[in-house]
Amino acid sequence: MTDSQGGVAYRKADADYFAQRGLKAYAGVWSLWALGVGAVISGHYSGWNLGLATGGWGGMFVATVIIAVMYLGLTFSIAEMSPALPHTGAAYSFARTAMGPWGGFVTGLCENVEYVLTPAVIVFFIGSYLGAIFGTPAAFQPVWWIGGYVLFVGLNIVGVELSFKVTLVVTLMALAVLAVFWAFAIPLVDFSANALDIAAGGGRLEGGNGPFLPFGIGGALATLPFAVWLFLAIEQLPLAAEESVDPKRDMPRGIMAGMATLIVSAFGILLLNPSLPGVGSFALGTSAEPLLDGFKAIFGEGTAKLLALIALIGLVASFHTIIFAQGRQIYSLSRAGYFPPALSVTHSARKTPHVAMIAGACVGLAVMLGLFVILGVESGSAAIGGTLLNMAVFGAMCSYIAQALSFILLRRNLPAMERPYRSPFGVPGAVLTIAIALLTIFFQLSDPIYRSGVLGVALWFALGIGYFALKGRHRLILSPEEEFAMEHGAKARPVV
């Protein structure tokens, strides 16, 4: 059969096709909460602090408030859409129903960039930590990377029940590490002397008590891309919709609980980490491991290796949960025929998308190893830690814009669609999400490192869209997302 919308052709798969692609429902509210929080929590351990160098403490605070507003608008929109469209496709599913097959595919492609590259970046930092702990040479790094992927892809393949249990445990451990840090940091805090130690226009200010916005409001806005790391990947939670026991009830609760947890943690780390004696915003702005620096300021250098091992927990939590999301994201696009259908086959006994997870891991590893061979580990470090990470952020911003637009169109064109939960922010919240995401992209493009990353994303998009235009759109399959979109598309209010 064909669909004139987007010039696509469908085939109706038999029962055996979907039997080979079955998932197992297990997750409740707390499993979903852990999936969302765990995916983000490594951003509270490192990465966010680089914004201190561009905006100072006040600029980072302003940027974090703005980005938190964007994520609230996004997550409330997702909390409405995910129980109304409870499919593993998540962002792709929302956009497919709202904007047709091309809109769905491009949105899915944006997310694909984020979920394939982000685990690669995280495992790189895991390797750096392990190298420092065990004293391995730089040339040994690929062994840590491969080992990390094998271990956590393997845990995700073993079964959804084990995967969610591991997610819950490592997320609680990561939050416990932060809670211990906060408890020991609070008595030592001297905010004015340490957090405000950047002089107007830059440079360290001896004794602190510097300006709130040392680089002005422009510096605060330039810090927006760094503040994203405090919340990036919370949006992955709806990818578990078909593995949730009751997505219509639990998905909104899990999303909102996760967002509340992240807001408390984000502002806690922002306030306490730069305020410690011997740390400060100036030094932290160029630190590779800000939380580790904070622990050293509290407990001393003698415990560095033990503290580094503890600080690994947050990276492990995010790596494990984003591997989960990566597999489901590739699985959903493959099951519907946008990607080759072979990628969506699930394990016959464990009902996990093992092919999709292995394929995503191989692509991420190939990028890392290619940079390692071509550039060498030192140059590769800058590329992986900077350019690739920024590629993931750019893909995420594009995805957020598409999801917020999907929310607006669904509200407008399908007002009668069943919505077990309704966003209290409504359309204005989605519009605000789009505006802030566009502003963030603008400041990404103002940075040469971000611009080079955008070129990589453009190539990714070109390859994906080329495949879909030439082949994929002629071989789509009536998956649950597609059937839902076509059924409701016929009922949509005409666009005027």
UniProtKB/TrEMBL annotation:
It is found in: Cell membrane. The chain crosses the membrane at residues 25-45, 57-79, 115-136, 142-159, 166-186, 212-234, 255-272, 306-325, 355-377, 389-410, 422-443, 449-470. It comes from the Bacteria. One of its GO terms (cellular component) is plasma membrane. InterPro entries: AA/rel_permease1, APC_superfamily. Its main location: membrane. It is a multi-pass membrane protein. GO terms for molecular function: transmembrane transporter activity. Pfam families: AA_permease_2. Keywords: Cell membrane, Membrane, Transmembrane, Transmembrane helix. This is Ethanolamine permease. The lineage of its organism: Bacteria, Pseudomonadati, Pseudomonadota, Alphaproteobacteria, Hyphomicrobiales.
